[in-house]
């Protein structure tokens, strides 16, 4: 017996059989491809809130075919039309099929086993069953789906025959199309039992023939709005606005605590509309539902019979344990022997009664394998004979391992990985022997890396095998040495710690404090809680050794105790390796290189199309700064080049490539993403590779799992200078893998280039930000680290100019969202924003509804892209680089980079998914209509069509056509391009930065399961756009989203070269200021221990890296070390101050934010501004403007305005600061 998982679209009325109350505000359902294609928002709005029972079939919304009304309280009728009925190719087979109506009883919906009907799945299905199924029609005109009527019927019987009415559970879930979709890709929304299942349904036929079967069968379920034997999770109640933003935020946090996300190991089961779920999958999901029910009771937000529901879930868990038994992986274990149809044999042995429900299956299975007992049917004989000798030859240890594996609900691929030592070696980073597994089966969950389309073995899967229900355990105890007799068995606790540490690493943390680790362990979705005390770690150091390290993190304050932390041994080793290489090479000086850097810079600037103006003081300052940076970069074995957008990092790399003494020894250019690679190569005038491409060449990249490898046979010893761009995107693993792949005795210079103000990497650590912070602070160190600051080159002069206005307003605004002290007049741009002033390359637009957002985007398209209106398709095409014939130039396909929409999220009405759908429907309607024809072509769930803008989302080797012949090319994740016409149901893609090359994509090959290597790219998430630049960028900023951070906004603001348009929800641009605060830094929240340890004490607290963010003695955060010194001096002197208090201009309009404000007893305001780098022309001009603004508003230096400044070395004069403090204190008193 199996259970069902059924996918449903999100519905704002809880799937009650009515049209959504506000269809236009529900973008989530379009995450499902059928709804995306068919949905008509205007038609749905016209019948919003009405019962489907009261509507004609033509009025039913697109979700009618996606179980959008599975909670219907009133019977309704659904009309089915066979998609082949009107096609010429299928006239003889399907031409007589008539539209057929079926009544849908209350609380019923249609289950459709789509995956079982895919042609690509048929070989695997046939492999699993001894009785041959009817063959597919060899003359079938369409190859994606099973065509033969007889085979369809057999498949439906095979699928639904495993579902037992009254016993099988049904789990209703949403894919990423739901309000939590950016953090939960599968969300269980309801659970109940299958009460009844309809027989096979058929289309009516006009010729009296038997008709073709529907793939859909009606499932009547037990879920009720007020039910106790099946219920919905109360997501809608938690999401309902209360009118109190604070309470809404609190409920949002509680919602994430209550949400039932699907275990990553079970994603395949929660796919393809309707699937069969094994008991182990049901148990995992039920345990998560149980925790959700308990959370709902604890929160007290939603009334209902939650106590009775908890009892029901507990009862279902007990029943499911009985169904599961002690050996749920018997079939997979047999397949690990390489026995074809092993799963089928295991099921048939049970169903035939050869093995009783409570029997140990192995005595009988052993006899069958040895040929002493016949199998249930002769169809197994040949396959048993094929594996018999291998089985008989197994050593006793191997037999024990095989039998042990059968206790876990492993997939056949997982069982094979862990039984076959060769496959096991490929899927782990450390050697694990058969004996290791027998002594500690949790080693599987600790070390498994998974495979393509097959998740790693989870701790829950192993746990259910070793700690089953008491009845199961009593019947079939796990033998020694594998047995686990206590929930707090040290092996189990260690595996749980490894699990939470691996999850934390995926989220960016390199280590976790012991308290936070144990909090997370206690929350793991295992049936028996794993709770141990704080002192457990100290008593189990021997067990942890080599797997988990117990690290003592030094206290922040003198006298405070150290904080113990857990860290995976592999991550600790990587941090140690990086610390040694980077730290020591940063101290190693190289011989000077004779070069005229100023001349080389001018040459590089000219070569890239730029212009150096010796009469422009800003250009002169920038050139001098860049020349000093180049001298630094070639002076050490490791150096870092840091600079905000527009400061000339690219010019420096261009000059470096022109330096003959450096270039003759070779310069290797690397970048994290394909787009960054293309941009680096183009800007620097040289060849470049992605890191994945470089590692692949060295045999150090795992293409199956898309991850770098830290070991390999050969090391690269070609170029002597290695430059890595966009280093803020590098995880600890990325950087470590590159260093391990290089012959470091051969490489003289490693130059790391980037902007640590951008988003931290997707993965573990923040090595570049940590290195930069270490180099900056090294002058304050004593001993080995002293002097490393000479390896850091920082660019501060912005040279990106805007026609007609000089400096870039977009970059002025972006400067607020950095970890650096902004220019002295940086608050001028915030003031101008709030006053509604006009800008040069920056425009602010407000919106409040989804319709208004789309209207504003159209208006901005007309203004900045030259469109004549919403129906100007030719203008839209021109904006993407298509010529007047509608063709993309083969030799210049860069138009895809002309403009870009960015959003922080994928879901929501303002998310990437909906914005892409809107753009495609608005400007590709003809192509979509053509693709819907029998001869039409589209790709994937998003229906990618000709002329669509797309992005590559996988690293792949693909065949490219250069006009003469095919050549093998590396197409990298992040490359942006457009689709062109192809042949024979293929389409060609051309990518920006790749002239004279096309790449073919086919639906059956690249998008077999709906998703593939391309996605629509009119809109991208900010994360996806990192490493790329576009001429014009439209950034959508919603009012409330958890994903917004200082780094995300900075990254978004710095993607444009010519024009930035901010589309802000609401009517107040001042909301941006809140995200400039140091507290909003995502980078600083991560736990790392590369150079300086940063650690949360528990999962509720927020760490702040003291080397990245500065916390005052008063407790608030400031932007610079100089401000930190001043704030602490004021606090120690007892002077009350406010940091960055808004100052309204009474005479001269404006709203500035002085560094420090003081309110006298009579209510007067006194200001203190700390100034830096006034020797630079741009800073001096900025201060002159600000000084004049202060004067006009009544602030006079020495009276109620005080200033201080850094010395020529960037230091502070304590005596001068003390004098200012004393003056202010006297005024205040």
| Average pLDDT level | 90
Percent in helix: 25-40%
Q: What kind of sheet is the major sheet?
A: 7 strands, mixed
Strand content: 15-25%
Which structural class best describes the helix and strand composition? alpha/beta
- Enumerate the spans where pLDDT stays under 50 for 5 or more consecutive residues: none
Describe, in short, the structure shown.
With 1229 residues, the protein is α/β, with parallel strands linked by helices. The chain has 46 helices and 42 strands.
What this model shows, in words?
This protein is of the alpha/beta class. Helix 10 (330-336) crosses helix 15 and helix 26 (597-607) packs across helix 27. The radius of gyration is 32 Å and the shape is globular.
Would you spell out the secondary-structure blueprint of this structure?
Elements lengths: L2 E5 L25 H6 L2 H6 L29 E5 L10 H4 L5 E5 L3 E4 L10 H6 L21 H12 L8 E6 L12 E11 L19 E5 L9 E2 L2 H5 L5 H14 L15 E4 L1 H21 L6 H19 L5 H7 L5 H10 L10 H8 L11 H12 L3 H10 L6 H8 L1 H6 L7 H6 L3 H5 L11 H8 L3 H6 L14 H17 L5 E2 H9 L13 H4 L1 H4 L3 E6 L9 E6 H19 L9 H11 L9 H17 L4 E6 L5 H10 L1 H4 L3 E5 L2 H11 L4 E2 H7 L3 E2 L4 E2 L12 E4 L7 H10 L7 E6 L12 H11 L14 E4 L5 E2 L3 E2 L1 H6 L12 H9 L6 E6 L2 H15 L8 H7 L19 E5 L8 H12 L1 H7 L17 E4 L3 E6 L4 E6 L4 E6 L4 E6 L6 E5 H4 L7 E3 L2 E3 H4 L4 E8 L8 H8 L2 E10 L5 H4 L35 E2 L5 E2 L2 H12 ...
Parallel strand pairs: 1-5, 13-19, 13-20, 14-15, 14-18, 18-19, 23-34, 24-32, 24-33, 33-34, 41-42
Antiparallel strand pairs: 1-9, 2-3, 4-7, 5-6, 6-7, 6-8, 10-12, 11-12, 16-17, 21-22, 25-28, 25-31, 26-27, 26-30, 28-29, 29-30, 35-36, 37-40, 38-39, 40-41
Helix pairs in contact: 8-9, 10-11, 10-15, 21-22, 25-32, 26-27, 26-28, 27-28
